[in-house]
């Protein structure tokens, strides 16, 4: 048995019988044209000639066979040349590369269509109809995309091999590589939900950081420093971000926000995406209570500070309590509303976490009403563990205010229970009725 050297992992799910693939006795993956692709198959391999539908292979791109010094991306090019690339499902470095081939029915439909000469590969016919090589690429991966992909891979390879010898050739091929990046990116966005997940998350953070760069001077111009009025600037800058991420908000209960004077808004907290919903309904003169770590979030942190966000140290209850007691005073003095996430942390477990007591102490201390706002579950479009970030609809339900007039610290526990129960049933209700993701993707 061959010793596997460190290299690149890849996954291949061919989905149909794969006449061009066969397992050799040594466990390496070869084409029927006896061209060794240099893939060493690991012990988890479930591929065999008998395994027909679906065939999945967990392979290893090592350096102990065949294409010894080749760029790992060349693996993809080989697969392309041998008609094995159908759609790229996931592509991460150095995590598994996954290639997925079309369903058998599609393959059958496509038999008989001609293959581009450049991509032609040795075909094997053992007389078994199932073994016929589907003669074109999958309908869901346009050929021009695959051509670009192959072009990119060739260019990458050329760059690798020529850079040490001819600088001129290397720089021109590098340009080729650069030009093929955008379509490649599009291909990945279109075919890999994992890639979409990371792309959207990175885009969100990067875009918010850029917006914050813009927000800082605008806030300074508006108020000359830290001021709750800066939240208007932040709100108007953030409002479009939902469109970029494919999110839609449906808000109900607007009338409950028509309350005059200071109040405390409490809402459930699923993700940093909550900021988008928060900005949808944020009333004037309203700022938030946030963990102190947020102040170190670069330009976003500075913007939060300028927006008058009250930072608390969750690890030091006594400090947090005194900051919140101070905030209750400011609420009254400056007629400010405060938004608190009483779960105290992000939670996407399909239910609410038990509430912390601070928000209720705050409301009682300021004798200000509490307005609960419930965000429907994100689980129909955003799943952190499963790496899914589709487009979707979020329902925001603004509940009637809960008065705290005449309440004392003794009432905090019952106030908390009442608020929790109201929000929990509203959460279950809006999450049940939320439309399914409108961004589901077919692979
Ligand atoms: C265009 C530019 C764009 C860029 C910028 C984009 C956006 C920026 C703008 C806006 C975005 C802002 C978004 C901010 C989101 C931030 C979300 C968060 O950070 S969530 C995390 C922080 N929040 C919280 O923690 C919630 C508040 N926490 C609490 O209220 C807690 O109670 C606590 C005060 C931290 C204490 O917590 P602890 O774990 O100790 O538990 P308890 O709640 O059980 O309390 C213990 C004990 O203390 C008593 N207590 C609590 N609070 C008070 C109080 N205020 N006064 C008196 N006593 C208090 C409580 O009763 C308990 O005692 P006992 O058990 O005896 O009753
Ligand atoms: C130096 C750069 C550092 C980069 C940091 C990136 C900052 C994020 C950038 C853009 C996102 C904009 C929204 C910011 C508001 C997010 C608030 C948030 O969600 O904080 C989490 C907090 O409620 C609970 O934290 P935990 O769940 O306990 O953990």
Automatic annotation (TrEMBL):
GO cellular component, one term: membrane
Name of the top EC class for this enzyme: transferase
Transmembrane segment boundaries: 177-198, 204-221, 294-312, 359-378
Residue span of region Disordered: 111-132
InterPro entries in UniProt: AGP_acyltrans, Plipid/glycerol_acylTrfase
Pathway this chain belongs to: Phospholipid metabolism; CDP-diacylglycerol biosynthesis; CDP-diacylglycerol from sn-glycerol 3-phosphate: step 2/3
Identification of the protein by name: 1-acyl-sn-glycerol-3-phosphate acyltransferase
Coiled-coil region(s): none
Domain spans labelled Phospholipid/glycerol acyltransferase: 263-378
């Amino acid at each position: 048995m061959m010793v596997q050297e460190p290299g690149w992992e890849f996954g291949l799910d061919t989905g149909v019988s794969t006449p061009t693939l066969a397992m050799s006795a040594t466990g390496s993956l070869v084409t029927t044209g006896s061209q060794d692709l240099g893939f060493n198959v690991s012990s988890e391999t479930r591929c065999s000639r008998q395994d027909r539908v679906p065939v999945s292979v967990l392979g290893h791109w090592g350096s102990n066979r065949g294409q010894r010094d080749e760029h790992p991306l060349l693996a993809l090019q080989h697969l392309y040349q041998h008609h094995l690339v159908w759609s790229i499902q996931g592509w991460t470095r150095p995590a598994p590369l996954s290639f997925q081939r079309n369903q058998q029915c599609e393959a059958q439909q496509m038999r008989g269509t001609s293959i581009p000469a450049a991509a032609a590969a040795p075909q094997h016919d053992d007389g078994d109809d199932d073994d016929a090589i589907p003669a074109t690429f999958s309908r869901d991966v346009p050929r021009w995309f695959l051509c670009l992909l192959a072009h990119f891979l060739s260019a990458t390879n050329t760059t690798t091999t020529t850079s040490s010898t001819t600088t001129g050739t290397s720089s021109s091929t590098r340009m080729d590589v650069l030009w093929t990046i955008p379509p490649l990116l599009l291909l990945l966005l279109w075919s890999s939900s994992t890639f979409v997940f990371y792309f959207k998350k990175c885009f969100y953070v990067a875009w918010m950081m850029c917006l914050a760069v813009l927000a800082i001077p605008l806030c300074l111009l508006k108020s000359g420093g830290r001021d709750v009025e800066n939240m208007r600037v932040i709100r108007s800058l953030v409002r479009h971000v939902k469109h970029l991420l494919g999110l839609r908000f449906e808000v109900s209960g607007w009338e409950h926000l028509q309350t005059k004077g200071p109040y405390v808004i409490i809402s459930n907290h699923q993700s940093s995406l909550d900021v988008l919903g928060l900005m949808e309904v944020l009333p004037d003169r309203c700022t938030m209570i946030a963990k102190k770590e947020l102040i170190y979030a670069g330009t976003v942190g500075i913007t939060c500070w300028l927006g008058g966000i009250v930072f608390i140290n969750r690890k030091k209850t006594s400090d947090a309590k005194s900051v919140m007691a101070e905030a209750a005073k400011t609420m009254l003095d400056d007629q400010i509303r405060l938004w608190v996430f009483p779960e105290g942390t992000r939670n996407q477990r399909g239910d609410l976490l038990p509430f912390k007591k601070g928000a209720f102490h705050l409301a009682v201390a300021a004798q200000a009403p509490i307005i609960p706002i419930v965000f429907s579950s994100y689980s129909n479009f955003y799943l952190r563990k499963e790496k899914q970030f589709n487009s979707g609809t979020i329902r925001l339900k603004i509940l009637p205010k809960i008065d705290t007039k005449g309440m004392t610290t003794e009432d905090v526990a019952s106030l908390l229970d009442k608020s929790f129960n109201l929000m929990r049933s509203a959460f279950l209700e809006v999450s049940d009725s939320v439309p399914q993701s409108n961004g589901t993707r077919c692979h």
